[in-house]
């Protein structure tokens, strides 16, 4: 199957084209099933490629480049449209297509009845295509193409319900922040090209050893700026919580499982460059990751929107992954990326099922006691909760433990930050589970309050379980969230399957630290978090502490919005205004000097043309000054 | 003596063939004007077809001429007045394409607006002659002749929508400001002549060969001349701060004419800039390079930022064309590093950019032509609202062209931007390259706004009453060719980059 690796992105592309042309005819639900089938076919191909790769020797696995055609071939510049099928990219592809197919299926149920049903799947398939290009690209340019593609799809899907102002604004925010990241990526690309003379990952990584530390640092840090934008790290994380305005399958697929991990993927992809960079580069990455993890976890503690909790949780978990990257434990980063994809997709889809069952209610204060009404959703959500809280043997425990171990080797301070984050994670997830599924049912009050508005609640529907195509993905993901950690158990070298598998690409991370004591501390932290949350929200022994400043995300978001909406926007408008007023005006003043006496009596003339001419006049004066005085006389 | 000897060696018949693109365009314009004046109104599509065929012949002639240069090497014609080299042919090809596509764009437009007639097409051809002469010139006076032929026809073209006040205004504004800048340019020529004793590039080089640029040198007249030449050229390419005329003139002119200005006139102006700076005044490269550096940065940034706050698509595209000019200036700046030396990728990256941008902008303005509807007034963002529903294929084409303008990979626009930035990086102009990338990031927002309006914006009351967007045959052909070229070059850019001289 290795020869047909191009089929992996081709299927979603085909799906995109078919839905583009016949989407409306296919309609609801055929278009959705079709889109899901395309991604499922990609998964089948990926699985075939995976098996083929396994039959190769470990050295050969890292070099499977398949060129579609030579894209640019001029002189020294040679860029192919080519795919690199190595353990890293295929691991990514497996979960992108696997989880992608499940979420597509889920969306068929979730989006049922939406007036733009087929358009939703159009974007979703385009997204899958772009994401696979990003992952499979054998050089930075193909990755960049996918990088831009996923960004655009994310933008379109966040503002899918653009009738809501908040959705449209959120989309814009995502676009603008992501552009900052894109710039970082472009800079990294040009630095790499300048230093290595090629954009191929294989060439760059091969040449990494001969790069000077400063060049490698520049490439790595610019790539990290790009990664910060895409993977929502401080200070560019702002767009991700707002991105929850999009439909929930989008949140699960793009803003939890796949796209937001692209930054982590990129850093792992160029890990040899990062290894030769000055030592402060990985340290910066580790600190940013740890800070983001802690920061977002504190914010998640006080959120009341069921999806906002998960959004901040995602930011926090991505922080963990960067902490791993900065600590040099690339395998741990990828491992956590995979398990996180399982359990976070599960939690998002579970929350979507709740929102669906609650008739589009997202406020956890109006939920409660749902375990009786939505038993399957409840059961699977519990699995996701235990996984993210780090309870063994659920998947999240194993991957988080690897990261904490690596952080400990890097610096005990980072380890402590990671532990506190783990405690907070367990706490806020338990809080969420209790608020949604336990306690007394609070939605009846909400009905009475909202009855006057005549919305859906007024009809007095009880919450209901979701249809099969929504529940099936939940069950599958629950199994994976439970068992996902078994791909890399730390007991002996033979149980560390993922580490061995990825070793030809990202190398090994050596550690002499005793694993067991650290693991026990981590388990204890998780249990304390769960226990405290039960004490506060279930038994109500303790008063909940939910400071407003946390709910406001420490005021950072508002500060940035105020700046961008106020001075920032003013600055932009100011440039436009200055162009038409100040520059013209200043130009006018100078022009009087240039034109000597001509200025006075002509106040009734058509202002514009004269001003424009005056601008040219000023330009003449400036250029004459430069050439004659600065260059000539001085 | 060398010049004389070359003249006696060359038979006039060969030189005639080397000049044939100009002759074809000239006779096309003359025939069209004279015959159309003597005959009643030609049937539908005949004027535009005639003009398009002339343009195609011009393009066709480029191939044997290119081959000749491949075999015999470059030379000069008409007593050393014009260059006969690959750059000349390349620009001829670019401008020929512009005339071809502009003729197709104008066909239905003129009928729709009730302006059907041969004049516009004849003016396109005459303007093309001016542009080609500018690009080929080996003499400042010849260059000025070309510049005036191009400019004067453009003034008339800008004002050619007789029923639209804004068009008249655009023509007048352009005329006043263009005259002003021409005067400055001419004064620059006079000063340079005073300093070197010649207006011929080769003679200028010989005269300057002995003067070594040093600090405190006594060549103020020459330097002042160079300054004024740079101003005149910067005005023509619409570099900030000499850009003020562009948005007004682009917005007011008939849309196909705007397309022609943004493509052919820009290509000619950049070619002229390269000729003057690199071939006429390479000794001064250390003097004008910082100026180019400043102009490039101001232009990429100014164009991108101002474009974002516009609401009229034509005005947006005007500022976007300023930002594109900034990118081309990045390439010129890179080329200036190697002025007088063996040369680098700067020049070819600029020429490549002009060709790609010509086709790209023709398609974009072609779609604006269709959407602007009768009266040529519906060019604000709202006019594009809902195009994704009513005309999905057209909207899809526009999306591709806009993505290309933004420089997204797998489109020709990326190839162009990548080329100039690569040239800048290779010439070690890192600061310019970095600023250009930032500007590209900002400018993307403007193209996205148009896409949102087409695909996402909700219909509003009164949208149904709008005139339907029509897609006549010639316009469709032009847009399709432009989109196809954009994608083709995006996927297979190698051959084109190899060709660029």
Describe the structure.
The complex is a heterodimer of chains A (634) and B (501). With 634 residues, chain A is mainly alpha-helical. Helix content of chain A is 72%, strand content 3%. Chain A has helices at 7-54, 58-61, 87-110, 117-136, 140-158, 165-196, 201-207, 213-230, 239-242, 248-257, 262-269, 271-276, 280-300, 306-326, 330-357, 375-389, 395-410, 412-437, 443-450, 468-483, 497-506, 515-538, 548-551, 556-580, 582-595, 607-633, and strands at residues 65-74, 77-84. In chain A, strands 1-2 form a two-stranded antiparallel sheet. Chain A is globular. By secondary structure, chain B is an all-alpha fold. In chain B, 75% of the residues lie in helices and 1% in strands. Chain B has helices spanning 2-9, 12-18, 20-38, 46-72, 86-112, 119-136, 140-158, 165-196, 201-208, 220-237, 245-252, 255-280, 285-308, 313-336, 345-372, 387-390, 392-406, 412-426, 430-455, 473-491, 494-499, and strands at 75-77, 82-84. A two-stranded antiparallel sheet of chain B has the order 1-2. Chain B is globular. The chains are: A mainly alpha (634), B mainly alpha (501). Chains A and B meet through strand 1, helix 5, helix 6, helix 24 and helix 26 of A and helix 8, helix 10, helix 13, helix 18 and helix 19 of B.
């Amino acid at each position: 199957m290795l020869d047909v690796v191009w089929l992996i992105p081709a299927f979603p592309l085909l799906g995109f084209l078919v839905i583009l042309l016949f989407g409306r005819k296919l309609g609801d639900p055929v278009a959705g099933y079709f889109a899901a089938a395309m991604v499922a076919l990609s998964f089948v191909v990926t699985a075939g490629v995976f098996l083929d790769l396994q039959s190769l020797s470990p050295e050969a696995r890292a070099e499977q480049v398949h060129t579609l055609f030579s894209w640019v071939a001029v002189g020294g510049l040679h860029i192919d449209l080519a795919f690199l099928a190595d353990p890293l990219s295929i691991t990514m592809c497996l979960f992108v297509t696997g989880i992608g197919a499940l979420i597509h299926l889920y969306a068929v149920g979730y989006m049922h009845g939406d007036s733009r049903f087929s358009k939703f799947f159009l974007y979703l398939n385009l997204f899958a295509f772009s994401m696979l290009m990003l992952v499979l690209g054998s050089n930075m340019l193909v990755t960049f193409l996918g990088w831009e593609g996923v960004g655009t799809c994310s933008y379109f899907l966040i503002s899918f319900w653009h009738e809501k102002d908040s959705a449209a604004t959120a989309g814009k925010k995502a676009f603008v922040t992501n552009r900052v990241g894109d710039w970082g990526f472009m800079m990294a690309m040009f630095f790499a090209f300048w230093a290595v003379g090629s954009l191929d990952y294989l060439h760059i990584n091969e040449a990494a050893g001969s790069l000077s530390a400063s060049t490698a640092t520049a490439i790595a840090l610019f790539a990290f700026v790009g990664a910060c934008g895409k993977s929502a790290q401080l200070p560019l994380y702002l767009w991700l919580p707002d991105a929850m305005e999009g439909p929930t399958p989008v949140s699960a697929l793009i803003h939890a499982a796949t796209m937001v991990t692209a930054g982590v993927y990129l850093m792992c992809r160029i890990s040899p460059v990062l290894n030769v960079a000055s030592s402060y580069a990985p340290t910066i990455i580790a600190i940013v990751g740890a800070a983001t993890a802690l920061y977002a976890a504190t914010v998640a503690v006080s959120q009341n929107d069921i999806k906002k909790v998960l959004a901040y949780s995602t930011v926090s978990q991505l922080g963990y992954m960067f902490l791993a990257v900065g600590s040099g434990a690339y395998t741990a980063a990828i491992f956590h990326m995979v398990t996180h994809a399982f359990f976070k997709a599960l939690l998002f889809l579970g929350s979507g099922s709740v929102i669906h069952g609650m008739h589009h209610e997202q406020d956890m204060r109006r939920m409660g006691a749902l375990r009786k009404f939505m038993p399957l959703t409840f059961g699977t959500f519990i699995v996701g909760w235990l996984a993210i809280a780090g309870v063994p043997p659920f998947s999240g425990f194993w991957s988080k433990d690897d990261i904490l171990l690596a952080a400990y080797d890097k610096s005990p301070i980072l380890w402590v930050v990671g532990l506190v984050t783990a405690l907070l994670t367990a706490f806020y997830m338990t809080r969420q589970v209790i608020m949604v599924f336990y306690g007394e049912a609070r939605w009846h009050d909400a009905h009475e309050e909202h009855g006057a508005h005549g919305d859906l609640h007024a009809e007095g529907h009880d919450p209901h379980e979701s249809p099969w195509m929504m529940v099936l993905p939940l069950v599958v993901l629950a199994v994976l969230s439970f068992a996902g950690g078994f791909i890399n158990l730390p007991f002996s070298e033979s149980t560390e399957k993922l580490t061995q598998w990825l070793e030809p690409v990202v190398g090994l991370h050596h550690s002499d630290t005793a694993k067991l004591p650290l693991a026990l501390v981590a388990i204890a932290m998780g249990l304390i978090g769960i226990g405290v949350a039960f004490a506060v929200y279930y038994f109500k022994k303790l008063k909940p502490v939910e400071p407003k400043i946390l709910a406001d995300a420490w005021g950072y978001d508002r500060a940035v919005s105020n700046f961008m909406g106020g001075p920032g926007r003013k600055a932009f408008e100011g440039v436009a205004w200055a162009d038409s007023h100040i520059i013209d005006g200043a130009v006018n003043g100078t022009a009087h000097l240039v034109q000597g006496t001509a200025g006075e009596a002509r106040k009734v003339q058509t202002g514009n043309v004269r001003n424009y001419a005056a601008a040219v006049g000023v330009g003449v004066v400036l250029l004459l000054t430069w050439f004659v005085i600065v260059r000539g006389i001085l | 003596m060398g010049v004389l000897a070359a003249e006696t060696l060359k038979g006039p018949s060969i030189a005639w063939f080397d000049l044939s693109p100009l002759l074809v365009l000239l006779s096309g314009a003359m025939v069209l004007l004279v015959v159309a004046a003597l005959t009643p109104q030609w049937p539908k599509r005949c004027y535009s077809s005639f003009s398009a065929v002339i343009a195609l012949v011009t393009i066709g002639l480029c191939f044997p001429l290119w081959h000749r240069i491949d075999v015999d090497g470059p030379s000069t014609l008409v007593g050393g007045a014009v260059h006969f080299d690959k750059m000349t042919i390349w620009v001829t090809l670019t401008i020929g394409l512009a005339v071809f596509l502009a003729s197709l764009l104008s066909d239905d437009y003129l009928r729709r607006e009730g302006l059907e007639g041969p004049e516009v097409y004849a003016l396109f051809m005459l303007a093309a002659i001016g542009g080609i002469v500018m690009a080929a010139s080996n003499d400042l006076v010849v260059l000025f002749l070309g510049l005036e032929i191009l400019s004067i026809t453009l003034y008339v073209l800008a004002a050619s929508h007789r029923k639209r006040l804004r068009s008249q205004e655009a023509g007048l504004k352009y005329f006043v400001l263009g005259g002003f800048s021409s005067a400055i340019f001419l004064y620059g020529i006079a000063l340079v002549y005073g300093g070197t004793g010649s207006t011929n590039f080769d003679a200028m080089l010989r005269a300057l060969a002995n003067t070594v640029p040093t600090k405190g040198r006594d060549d103020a007249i020459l330097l002042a001349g160079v300054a004024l030449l740079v101003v005149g050229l910067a005005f023509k390419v619409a570099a900030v701060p000499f850009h003020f005329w562009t948005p007004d003139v682009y917005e007011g002119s008939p849309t196909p004419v705007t397309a022609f200005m943004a493509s052919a006139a820009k290509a000619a102006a950049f070619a002229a800039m390269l000729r003057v700076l690199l071939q006429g005044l390479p000794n001064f490269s250390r003097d004008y390079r910082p100026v180019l550096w400043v102009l490039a940065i101001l232009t990429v940034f100014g164009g991108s930022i101002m474009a974002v706050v516009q609401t009229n698509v034509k005005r947006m595209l005007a500022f976007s064309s300023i930002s594109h000019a900034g990118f081309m200036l990045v390439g010129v700046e890179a080329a200036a590093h190697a002025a007088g030396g063996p040369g680098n990728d700067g020049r070819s990256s600029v020429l490549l950019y002009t060709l790609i941008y010509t086709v790209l902008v023709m398609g974009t303005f072609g779609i604006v032509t269709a959407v602007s509807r009768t009266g040529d007034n519906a060019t604000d963002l709202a006019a594009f609202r809902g195009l994704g529903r009513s005309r999905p294929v057209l909207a899809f084409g526009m999306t591709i062209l806009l993505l290309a303008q933004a420089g997204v990979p797998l489109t020709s626009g990326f190839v162009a931007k990548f080329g100039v930035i690569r040239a800048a990086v290779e010439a070690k102009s890192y600061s310019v390259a970095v600023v250009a990338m930032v500007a590209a990031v900002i400018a993307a927002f403007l193209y996205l706004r148009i896409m949102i309006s087409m695909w996402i914006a909700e219909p509003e009351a009164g949208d149904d009453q709008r005139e339907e967007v029509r897609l006549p045959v010639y316009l469709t052909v032009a847009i399709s060719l432009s989109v196809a070229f954009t994608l083709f070059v995006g996927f297979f850019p190698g051959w084109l980059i190899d060709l660029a001289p």
